[in-house]
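[Meeting: bench + compute handoff]

Bench side (C.D.) handed over the final construct sequence. Compute side (W.E.) agreed to return the predicted structure before the next meeting so the bench team could plan truncations. Sequence as handed over:
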Amino acid sequence: MYGRKVKLRFFFILLIFVTLSLTIFLILKSLEENVVFFQSPSEIKGLPELNKKKIRVGGMVKNKSISVQAEELNFIITDFKNEIIVTYSGVVPNLFAEGKGVVAEGYLKDKNFFLATKILAKHDENYMPPEVKAAIEGK
C-alpha cells in the first residue's frame, strides 16, 4: 500500500511528536512542583480545605503585631479584611517593618496560622507587588 520511504517518514514524524510531547509534559510537571502561589489572608480564609503545598501569603504587617521571642518572630499579615498569624525563624530583611508590605513563603498550619520559611522584601519601601496591591484594594 505505502512504500518503505513513506512508512519511515511517518514513524520518524511520530517519534518526534511523541518525544516532543513527553518533553513538554516533563517540563510542565517539574514546574508544577516548584510553582508557589500567592494568596491574601482573605483568600486563605475562603479555602474549602488546606493543602500541604508551599504557598506565599502577602499583605501588610499589622501595626503593633511584631513580637520577638528567643529566635522566633511572630507577626500578623492583614489585607484589612482578614488576618493571619505568621511565625518565622531566620534573618529578616531590612525593609521588614510594621505597616509595610510583606510576602511570606511557607506552609499553612490552619486558616489562622502560617509557618514561614522565607520573608520576601527585596524592594524599596515604596514598591508593592501587584498581587499584594490588588488584594488590598479588593480587585
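W.E. noted at the follow-up: The mean pLDDT is 85. C.D. will use this when planning the next construct.
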